[in-house]
Amino acid sequence: MIRVKKIAHAAYETPDLDRMVEYYTEILGLTLTGREPGTAYLASTIDHHSVVLHQGAHARCVRIGFQIGIDDDLDAFEKQTAAHGIRTERASDPAPGIADMVAFADPKGTVMEVLKPGGFASQPFASKGIVPHKLGHVAFFVRDVKKATDFYCNVLGFRVSDWMGDFFSFLRCGPDHHTINLMQADEDRHFHTAFELRDWAHLQTACDFLSLNGYKLLWGPGRHGIGHNLFAYHRAPDGLITETFAELDRMNEDLGYFEPRPWHRDRPQRPKVWAKDHTASNYWGILPSEEMRR
Ligand SMILES: [Fe+2]
Fold first, then answer.
1. How far does the centroid of ligand 1 lie from the alpha carbon of residue 81, in Å?
2. How far does residue 119's CA lie from ligand 1's centre (Å)?
3. What is the distance, to the nearest Å, from the Cα of residue 207 to the centroid of all Cα atoms in its chain?
4. Confidence band for 144, pLDDT divided at 50, 70 and 90
5. Per the confidence metrics, is the pTM higher than 0.85?
6. Spacing, Cα 139 to ligand 1 middle (Å)
7. Backbone angles phi, psi at 76, to 5 degrees
8. Quick check: 41 pLDDT over 80?
Protein backbone atom coordinates (compact mmCIF):
# COMPACT_ATOMS: atom_id res chain seq x y z
CA MET A 1 0.00 0.00 0.00
CA ILE A 2 0.99 3.64 -0.39
CA ARG A 3 1.54 5.09 3.08
CA VAL A 4 1.62 8.78 3.99
CA LYS A 5 5.15 9.71 5.07
CA LYS A 6 4.93 12.99 6.97
CA ILE A 7 2.48 15.44 8.52
CA ALA A 8 2.53 18.49 6.25
CA HIS A 9 0.14 20.89 7.94
CA ALA A 10 -2.77 21.29 10.32
CA ALA A 11 -5.61 23.76 9.68
CA TYR A 12 -7.74 25.40 12.35
CA GLU A 13 -10.75 27.65 12.59
CA THR A 14 -10.44 30.36 15.21
CA PRO A 15 -12.73 33.23 16.27
CA ASP A 16 -9.97 35.88 16.51
CA LEU A 17 -7.63 35.36 13.57
CA ASP A 18 -5.36 38.34 14.28
CA ARG A 19 -4.87 37.26 17.89
CA MET A 20 -3.86 33.74 16.82
CA VAL A 21 -1.54 35.02 14.08
CA GLU A 22 0.14 37.10 16.78
CA TYR A 23 0.42 34.01 19.04
CA TYR A 24 1.91 31.84 16.29
CA THR A 25 4.41 34.49 15.16
CA GLU A 26 5.35 36.33 18.39
CA ILE A 27 5.07 33.47 20.90
CA LEU A 28 5.59 30.17 19.03
CA GLY A 29 7.95 31.78 16.52
CA LEU A 30 6.55 30.52 13.22
CA THR A 31 6.89 32.66 10.10
CA LEU A 32 3.83 34.23 8.47
CA THR A 33 4.19 33.08 4.86
CA GLY A 34 0.82 34.08 3.44
CA ARG A 35 -2.23 36.12 4.33
CA GLU A 36 -5.57 36.18 2.50
CA PRO A 37 -8.89 37.55 3.72
CA GLY A 38 -9.92 35.23 6.56
CA THR A 39 -6.87 32.93 6.23
CA ALA A 40 -3.25 32.95 7.39
CA TYR A 41 -0.41 30.53 6.54
CA LEU A 42 2.41 29.92 9.00
CA ALA A 43 5.57 27.92 8.51
CA SER A 44 8.63 26.63 10.28
CA THR A 45 11.22 25.99 7.55
CA ILE A 46 11.10 23.96 4.37
CA ASP A 47 7.35 23.87 3.68
CA HIS A 48 5.29 26.87 2.58
CA HIS A 49 3.12 26.32 5.64
CA SER A 50 2.68 23.89 8.51
CA VAL A 51 -0.23 25.72 10.17
CA VAL A 52 -3.26 27.28 8.46
CA LEU A 53 -5.62 29.54 10.40
CA HIS A 54 -9.13 30.40 9.19
CA GLN A 55 -11.56 32.84 10.70
CA GLY A 56 -14.34 30.69 12.17
CA ALA A 57 -17.08 30.53 14.78
CA HIS A 58 -15.10 28.51 17.34
CA ALA A 59 -11.62 27.08 17.77
CA ARG A 60 -11.23 23.65 16.20
CA CYS A 61 -8.94 21.61 13.99
CA VAL A 62 -10.63 21.17 10.61
CA ARG A 63 -8.01 19.60 8.31
CA ILE A 64 -4.68 17.79 8.46
CA GLY A 65 -2.30 17.48 5.54
CA PHE A 66 -0.01 14.52 4.93
CA GLN A 67 2.69 14.05 2.31
CA ILE A 68 3.21 10.88 0.34
CA GLY A 69 6.72 9.95 -0.83
CA ILE A 70 8.49 11.51 -3.79
CA ASP A 71 8.15 8.24 -5.76
CA ASP A 72 4.54 7.60 -4.72
CA ASP A 73 1.70 8.17 -7.17
CA LEU A 74 -1.25 10.31 -6.03
CA ASP A 75 -3.62 8.72 -8.60
CA ALA A 76 -2.80 5.31 -7.16
CA PHE A 77 -3.28 6.63 -3.61
CA GLU A 78 -6.71 8.01 -4.57
CA LYS A 79 -7.71 4.61 -6.04
CA GLN A 80 -6.46 2.83 -2.94
CA THR A 81 -8.54 5.17 -0.75
CA ALA A 82 -11.67 4.83 -2.90
CA ALA A 83 -11.35 1.03 -2.65
CA HIS A 84 -12.23 1.41 1.07
CA GLY A 85 -15.57 2.95 -0.02
CA ILE A 86 -14.36 6.44 0.91
CA ARG A 87 -15.48 9.39 -1.20
CA THR A 88 -12.48 11.46 -2.29
CA GLU A 89 -12.11 14.87 -3.88
CA ARG A 90 -9.21 15.92 -6.06
CA ALA A 91 -7.90 19.48 -6.11
CA SER A 92 -5.20 21.17 -8.18
CA ASP A 93 -3.38 24.13 -6.62
CA PRO A 94 -5.70 24.17 -3.58
CA ALA A 95 -3.29 26.26 -1.49
CA PRO A 96 0.13 27.87 -1.81
CA GLY A 97 2.88 25.28 -2.17
CA ILE A 98 0.47 22.40 -2.90
CA ALA A 99 0.17 21.36 -6.55
CA ASP A 100 -2.08 18.30 -6.28
CA MET A 101 -4.15 16.91 -3.43
CA VAL A 102 -6.65 14.19 -2.54
CA ALA A 103 -9.09 15.12 0.23
CA PHE A 104 -11.48 12.95 2.25
CA ALA A 105 -12.91 12.88 5.75
CA ASP A 106 -11.73 10.69 8.64
CA PRO A 107 -14.39 9.00 10.86
CA LYS A 108 -14.72 12.07 13.11
CA GLY A 109 -15.09 14.48 10.17
CA THR A 110 -11.61 15.99 10.08
CA VAL A 111 -10.56 16.44 6.44
CA MET A 112 -7.44 14.53 5.42
CA GLU A 113 -5.46 16.33 2.72
CA VAL A 114 -3.00 13.92 1.15
CA LEU A 115 -0.58 15.71 -1.13
CA LYS A 116 2.42 15.19 -3.28
CA PRO A 117 5.40 17.19 -2.06
CA GLY A 118 6.11 20.08 -4.39
CA GLY A 119 9.03 22.46 -4.21
CA PHE A 120 10.59 23.64 -1.00
CA ALA A 121 9.74 27.10 0.31
CA SER A 122 12.91 27.27 2.41
CA GLN A 123 12.23 30.33 4.53
CA PRO A 124 14.71 30.85 7.37
CA PHE A 125 13.84 29.96 10.94
CA ALA A 126 12.22 32.91 12.72
CA SER A 127 14.45 35.02 14.98
CA LYS A 128 11.86 35.66 17.71
CA GLY A 129 9.59 33.50 19.84
CA ILE A 130 10.03 29.82 20.72
CA VAL A 131 10.88 28.73 17.12
CA PRO A 132 10.13 24.98 17.00
CA HIS A 133 11.84 22.63 14.56
CA LYS A 134 8.55 21.48 13.15
CA LEU A 135 4.91 20.54 13.63
CA GLY A 136 5.19 17.18 15.40
CA HIS A 137 1.76 15.70 16.04
CA VAL A 138 -1.92 16.40 16.54
CA ALA A 139 -3.92 14.56 19.22
CA PHE A 140 -7.69 14.13 19.28
CA PHE A 141 -10.42 12.90 21.60
CA VAL A 142 -12.58 10.47 19.61
CA ARG A 143 -15.86 8.66 20.21
CA ASP A 144 -14.56 5.37 18.77
CA VAL A 145 -10.82 5.00 19.23
CA LYS A 146 -10.67 1.52 17.65
CA LYS A 147 -12.48 2.65 14.49
CA ALA A 148 -10.40 5.85 14.17
CA THR A 149 -7.13 3.95 14.78
CA ASP A 150 -8.06 1.35 12.15
CA PHE A 151 -8.86 4.16 9.70
CA TYR A 152 -5.46 5.83 10.09
CA CYS A 153 -3.67 2.47 9.78
CA ASN A 154 -5.71 0.91 6.95
CA VAL A 155 -6.45 4.00 4.82
CA LEU A 156 -3.43 6.24 5.41
CA GLY A 157 -0.86 3.56 6.25
CA PHE A 158 -0.04 4.59 9.81
CA ARG A 159 1.56 2.07 12.19
CA VAL A 160 0.71 1.63 15.86
CA SER A 161 3.62 2.71 18.07
CA ASP A 162 1.95 2.16 21.44
CA TRP A 163 -1.41 1.86 23.19
CA MET A 164 -2.25 3.05 26.68
CA GLY A 165 -4.71 0.37 27.78
CA ASP A 166 -7.40 0.06 25.12
CA PHE A 167 -8.30 3.77 25.07
CA PHE A 168 -5.30 5.82 23.81
CA SER A 169 -3.41 4.99 20.60
CA PHE A 170 -0.15 6.54 19.36
CA LEU A 171 0.38 6.25 15.60
CA ARG A 172 3.39 6.95 13.41
CA CYS A 173 3.79 7.65 9.69
CA GLY A 174 7.58 8.10 9.74
CA PRO A 175 10.41 7.63 12.21
CA ASP A 176 8.83 9.83 14.92
CA HIS A 177 7.03 7.77 17.59
CA HIS A 178 3.70 9.49 16.97
CA THR A 179 2.20 11.92 14.49
CA ILE A 180 -1.45 11.24 15.39
CA ASN A 181 -2.73 10.15 18.80
CA LEU A 182 -6.31 9.26 19.58
CA MET A 183 -7.98 9.04 22.99
CA GLN A 184 -11.38 7.46 23.63
CA ALA A 185 -13.88 10.06 24.87
CA ASP A 186 -17.56 10.92 24.70
CA GLU A 187 -16.99 13.51 21.98
CA ASP A 188 -14.85 14.12 18.89
CA ARG A 189 -12.57 17.11 19.35
CA HIS A 190 -9.02 18.41 19.24
CA PHE A 191 -6.86 17.49 22.25
CA HIS A 192 -3.52 19.18 21.52
CA THR A 193 -1.12 20.20 18.77
CA ALA A 194 2.57 19.54 19.41
CA PHE A 195 5.70 21.28 18.13
CA GLU A 196 9.20 19.81 18.37
CA LEU A 197 11.93 21.79 20.11
CA ARG A 198 15.68 21.16 19.96
CA ASP A 199 16.33 19.78 23.42
CA TRP A 200 15.76 20.22 27.16
CA ALA A 201 17.51 23.62 27.19
CA HIS A 202 15.19 24.84 24.44
CA LEU A 203 12.18 23.56 26.39
CA GLN A 204 13.35 25.44 29.51
CA THR A 205 13.82 28.63 27.49
CA ALA A 206 10.35 28.12 26.00
CA CYS A 207 8.73 27.69 29.45
CA ASP A 208 10.44 30.87 30.72
CA PHE A 209 9.43 32.75 27.56
CA LEU A 210 5.82 31.56 27.88
CA SER A 211 5.76 32.65 31.52
CA LEU A 212 7.18 36.10 30.71
CA ASN A 213 4.38 36.51 28.17
CA GLY A 214 1.61 35.46 30.56
CA TYR A 215 1.18 31.82 29.48
CA LYS A 216 0.93 29.32 32.35
CA LEU A 217 1.78 25.65 31.91
CA LEU A 218 -1.17 23.23 32.16
CA TRP A 219 1.10 20.21 32.69
CA GLY A 220 4.85 19.66 32.76
CA PRO A 221 7.65 19.88 32.28
CA GLY A 222 7.84 16.11 32.51
CA ARG A 223 8.85 13.03 30.56
CA HIS A 224 6.13 10.89 29.02
CA GLY A 225 6.61 7.12 29.29
CA ILE A 226 4.87 6.52 25.97
CA GLY A 227 7.12 8.17 23.37
CA HIS A 228 9.57 9.18 26.12
CA ASN A 229 9.42 12.83 25.05
CA LEU A 230 10.05 15.74 27.38
CA PHE A 231 6.85 17.80 27.40
CA ALA A 232 5.19 21.01 28.55
CA TYR A 233 1.59 21.96 27.70
CA HIS A 234 -0.03 25.39 27.61
CA ARG A 235 -3.23 26.84 26.22
CA ALA A 236 -3.23 29.10 23.15
CA PRO A 237 -5.35 32.29 23.24
CA ASP A 238 -8.26 30.59 21.45
CA GLY A 239 -8.36 27.80 24.04
CA LEU A 240 -6.73 24.98 22.09
CA ILE A 241 -3.82 23.23 23.83
CA THR A 242 -0.27 23.44 22.49
CA GLU A 243 2.46 20.98 23.51
CA THR A 244 6.15 21.75 23.18
CA PHE A 245 8.32 18.62 23.29
CA ALA A 246 11.83 17.24 22.72
CA GLU A 247 13.58 13.85 22.67
CA LEU A 248 10.62 11.92 21.19
CA ASP A 249 11.39 8.25 20.46
CA ARG A 250 12.38 7.44 16.90
CA MET A 251 11.62 4.09 15.30
CA ASN A 252 14.12 2.00 13.33
CA GLU A 253 11.51 0.39 11.07
CA ASP A 254 13.84 -2.33 9.78
CA LEU A 255 14.76 -3.48 13.27
CA GLY A 256 11.32 -3.01 14.84
CA TYR A 257 12.41 -1.09 17.92
CA PHE A 258 12.91 2.50 18.97
CA GLU A 259 16.44 3.94 19.07
CA PRO A 260 17.84 3.00 22.50
CA ARG A 261 17.80 5.79 25.08
CA PRO A 262 19.06 5.87 28.71
CA TRP A 263 15.53 6.50 29.99
CA HIS A 264 14.02 3.40 28.33
CA ARG A 265 13.04 0.65 30.78
CA ASP A 266 12.51 -1.95 28.03
CA ARG A 267 15.68 -2.92 26.17
CA PRO A 268 14.92 -2.90 23.33
CA GLN A 269 11.89 -0.59 23.47
CA ARG A 270 9.28 -2.02 21.10
CA PRO A 271 5.66 -1.03 20.43
CA LYS A 272 3.46 -2.38 23.22
CA VAL A 273 0.34 -1.86 25.34
CA TRP A 274 1.14 0.26 28.41
CA ALA A 275 -0.81 0.08 31.66
CA LYS A 276 -2.65 3.25 32.63
CA ASP A 277 -0.33 4.53 35.34
CA HIS A 278 2.18 7.32 35.89
CA THR A 279 4.96 5.46 34.05
CA ALA A 280 2.92 5.71 30.85
CA SER A 281 1.97 9.37 31.19
CA ASN A 282 4.86 10.88 33.17
CA TYR A 283 7.96 9.06 34.43
CA TRP A 284 8.63 12.05 36.68
CA GLY A 285 5.42 11.38 38.58
CA ILE A 286 3.14 14.40 38.20
CA LEU A 287 -0.16 13.43 36.60
CA PRO A 288 -2.14 15.75 34.28
CA SER A 289 -4.38 18.37 35.83
CA GLU A 290 -8.14 18.35 35.23
CA GLU A 291 -7.49 21.46 33.14
CA MET A 292 -5.95 19.20 30.47
CA ARG A 293 -9.36 17.64 29.77
CA ARG A 294 -11.22 20.93 29.28
FE1 LIG B 1 1.46 15.07 22.56
1. 27
2. 29
3. 20
4. very high
5. yes
6. 6
7. -65, -40
8. yes
